[in-house]
Design brief:
Strand order of the largest sheet: 1-11-12-2-3-5-4
CATH superfamily: Endonuclease/exonuclease/phosphatase
Number of strands: 13
Order of helices and strands: EEHHEHEEEEEHEHEEEE
Strand content: 25-35%
Oligomer: single chain
CATH topology: Deoxyribonuclease I, Chain A
CATH class: Alpha Beta
Number of helices: 5
Shape: globular
Radius of gyration: 18 Å
Structural class: alpha+beta
CATH architecture: 4-Layer Sandwich
Number of domains: 1
Largest sheet: 7 strands, mixed
Length: about 300
């Protein structure tokens, strides 16, 4: 896929595009399957070289005519998935034309539920956020402020199912500095320890072989089924800093990096089967839109 890493799990055929993912062969057991996607969208700004960090820097502050078309292309991509974690989105500021980008993608891609968490609010100039798009209702959504010397990093935990063992998804964008990441991973490990079935996904800003990520996976009991899937930079991917980690109870069928250079990152996708005790059928939970989360401040 033009220099993009992709590897299959358990000899299941790798899907080369999001449309192919619906044709992946699954185990015969009647398990619930989920198609997951994690994507750092760089506030809807397309990049095709390091020079764009200079020549396109103004787009991080001011609106631009090409952003809407690029967001529509991102919407066409994410619409093939069940749950999507977004990093570097914007909650509605000058640079986005006062449009909440998570809500916009939810509408364009046909997701009934969405939620975003603003971690660094610069008022009218920028509202740096994480976002979630979901086809299922969540039972609970919690905002977490992650530790770090520089504030502005957060995590969203989204819980599905009312059983004793629900599914917990945690969406994150971790710090650039190693010491801050280690503290943040310690916090995430404590959070994940309360649940049996957990998926952590996002831009972790570190490689699979980094000491902090390897230690986090070992201490928290997670799996990264495939290592070294390169997602950054999108025009010549050489670093694997975007990840999806799962608990041992979750069966993984496929992991892939998609060759859709609509940001400075490439999206990473995973298809999983869930244990039978997790019930994702619709309940009378509050929708993600307008839902007031329980906020856990750190």
């Amino acid at each position: 896929m033009n220099g993009v890493d992709s590897k299959s799990i358990d000899d299941v055929r790798h899907a080369g595009s999001p449309k192919d993912s619906s044709n992946v062969a699954l185990d015969a057991a009647p398990k619930q399957t989920l198609r997951l996607l994690s994507y750092n969208i760089q506030a809807g700004i397309a990049s095709s070289g390091y020079h764009h960090y200079v020549t396109h820097s103004w787009k991080h502050v001011l609106p631009c005519s090409g952003r809407r078309g690029n967001l529509d292309r991102i919407a066409e991509l994410v619409r093939h998935y069940d749950i999507v974690g977004l990093q570097e989105t914007d909650a509605g500021s000058l640079r986005s034309g006062y449009v909440n980008l998570t809500e916009y993608l939810s509408t364009r891609a046909g997701f009934p539920y969405w939620y975003d968490q603003t971690n660094r609010n610069l008022g009218m100039f920028a509202q740096h956020s994480n976002g979630v798009l979901s086809r299922m209702r969540a039972e609970e959504i919690t905002e977490h402020r992650l530790p770090g010397a520089i504030p502005g990093r957060g995590a969203l935990s989204v819980r599905y199912g009312q059983s004793r063992d629900p599914l917990m998804l945690v969406f994150v964008h971790l710090a650039l500095g190693r010491r801050a990441r280690e503290r943040q991973m310690g916090f995430l490990g404590d959070l994940a320890s309360e649940y049996r079935h957990v998926i952590v996904m996002g831009d972790l800003n570190c490689r699979s072989d980094s000491p902090e990520l390897a230690g986090f996976i070992r201490r928290a009991g997670f799996r990264e089924p495939v290592h070294d899937l390169h997602t950054f930079p999108s025009w010549r991917p050489a670093q694997n800093i975007d990840h999806i980690l799962v608990s041992p109870s979750i069966d993984v069928h496929e992991v892939s990096v998609l060759n859709y250079a609509l940001s400075d990152h490439l999206p990473i996708a995973m298809e999983v089967s869930l244990p039978a005790e997790i019930d994702l059928s619709a309940h009378d939970y509050p929708a993600l839109q307008g839902h007031e989360p329980r906020v856990a401040a750190v």
